[in-house]
Amino acid sequence: MLEHVIDVFEVMPIFFYIGIVLLSVTVGSFLNVVIYRLPKMLERQWYEECRAFLSDQNIDIPVKSSAVMTLSKPDSTCPRCGHSIRFYENIPILSWLVLGGKCSQCDQAISKRYPLVELSTCLLGVVIASIYGVSTVTVFMLILTWGLIALTLIDLDHMLLPDQIVLPLLWLGLIFNLNAGFVPLNEAVIGAVVGYMSLYSVCWLFKLLTGKDGMGHGDFKLLALFGAWIGWQLLPLLILMASVVGAIVGISLIVFKGHQRNQAIPFGPYLAVAGWVTILWGDGIWAWYLLEIL
Question: What pLDDT sits at residue 180?
Answer without folding.
Answer: 94
